[in-house]
């Protein structure tokens, strides 16, 4: 059995996970956001009944593989903290940490809709967008611990003739991203970004849910917004598929609950990739809220396989 924690900006979800994916002793506690000792203490207390077992963590952030330093925008107390080192010192146990989107993709590859596929790119369509790349059942490690962040890079760009922000904004939905770059897919892709895109395209203030509902009933303005969204998102994800060669794309996150949106994005992607496929590439993820914990468990299974 493997001790696992899925750490987000609101809660720490904890469980003991069996190699077949069954969970026991599941608990959830609020995430201490601004107090590092309280954060570490919460994990130490959750693990205490199992003193000799390693701890594997999925986190809404990134651990640098060279330094062990954490970057987690939504958990301020972890910024620049070598979390694994602190936890090893406090508990005397092995600790392994991975990004939660990577863990989601890993879980779907081992237990979910992507089981049996060698090459998997998992996509999260939520408040923002994220992803994880799995090859041969393992997370592909990236520079600085970053892999699968297909939402970041200037893909929404104006033509070369447009030099200033104001004229560019009139031509394309060119918004500045939280990462510091203008034109990232993340600026139009997630739920809040879709609402902003709808305003840019001439619509009225609406929630992402009402925009999608209007789109599915044939509303003209919502249709214009989604045409723009699908054009950029389809191109961006098609580029990912052409580079990685992934044979399946599990999709999770709040926007994935709109089945028609996932189907439309799948069509937009398959129309732009180099290889013709007879069936869908994008598939709604199967594991739901369990994906983070199960992906963390897979980190432990990977360690055992290497040993």
UniProtKB/TrEMBL annotation:
<keyword id="KW-0547">Nucleotide-binding</keyword>
<dbReference type="Pfam" id="PF00480">
    <property type="entry name" value="ROK"/>
</dbReference>
<dbReference type="InterPro" id="IPR049874">
    <property type="entry name" value="ROK_cs"/>
</dbReference>
<keyword id="KW-0119">Carbohydrate metabolism</keyword>
<keyword id="KW-0479">Metal-binding</keyword>
<dbReference type="InterPro" id="IPR043129">
    <property type="entry name" value="ATPase_NBD"/>
</dbReference>
<protein>
    <recommendedName>
        <fullName>N-acetylglucosamine kinase</fullName>
        <ecNumber>2.7.1.59</ecNumber>
    </recommendedName>
</protein>
<keyword id="KW-0067">ATP-binding</keyword>
<dbReference type="GO" id="GO:0046872">
    <property type="term" value="F:metal ion binding"/>
</dbReference>
<dbReference type="GO" id="GO:0045127">
    <property type="term" value="F:N-acetylglucosamine kinase activity"/>
</dbReference>
<dbReference type="InterPro" id="IPR000600">
    <property type="entry name" value="ROK"/>
</dbReference>
<dbReference type="GO" id="GO:0005524">
    <property type="term" value="F:ATP binding"/>
</dbReference>
<keyword id="KW-0418">Kinase</keyword>
<keyword id="KW-0862">Zinc</keyword>
<keyword id="KW-0808">Transferase</keyword>
């Amino acid at each position: 059995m493997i001790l696992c924690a899925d750490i987000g900006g609101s809660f720490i979800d904890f469980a003991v996970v069996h190699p077949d994916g069954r969970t026991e002793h599941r608990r959830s506690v609020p995430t201490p956001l601004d107090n590092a000792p309280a954060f570490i203490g919460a994990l130490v207390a959750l693990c205490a009944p199992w003193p000799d077992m390693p701890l594997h963590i999925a986190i809404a952030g990134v651990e640098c593989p060279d330094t062990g330093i954490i970057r987690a925008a939504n958990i301020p107390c972890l910024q620049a903290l070598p979390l694994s080192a602190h936890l090893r010192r406090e508990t005397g146990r092995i600790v392994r940490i991975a990004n939660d989107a990577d863990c989601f993709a890993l879980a779907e590859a081992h237990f979910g809709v992507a089981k049996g596929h060698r090459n998997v790119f998992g996509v999260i369509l939520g408040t923002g967008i994220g992803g994880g790349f799995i090859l041969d059942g393992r997370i592909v490690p990236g520079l600085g611990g970053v892999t699968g962040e297909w939402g970041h890079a200037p893909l929404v760009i104006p033509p070369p003739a447009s030099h200033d922000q104001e004229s560019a904004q009139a031509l394309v939905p060119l918004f500045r991203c939280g990462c510091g770059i203008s034109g990232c897919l993340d600026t139009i892709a997630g739920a809040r970004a879709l609402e902003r895109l709808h305003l840019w395209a001439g619509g009225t203030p609406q929630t992402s849910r009402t925009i999608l509902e209007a789109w599915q009933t044939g509303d003209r303005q919502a249709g214009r917004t989604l045409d723009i969204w699908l054009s950029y998102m389809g191109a961006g994800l098609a580029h990912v598929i052409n580079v990685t060669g992934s044979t399946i794309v599990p999709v999770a996150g709040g926007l994935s609950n709109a089945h028609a949106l996932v189907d439309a994005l799948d069509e937009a992607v398959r129309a732009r990739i180099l290889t013709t496929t007879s069936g869908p590439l994008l598939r709604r993820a199967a594991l739901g809220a369990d994906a983070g914990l199960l992906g963390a468990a897979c980190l432990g299974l990977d360690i055992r396989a290497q040993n």
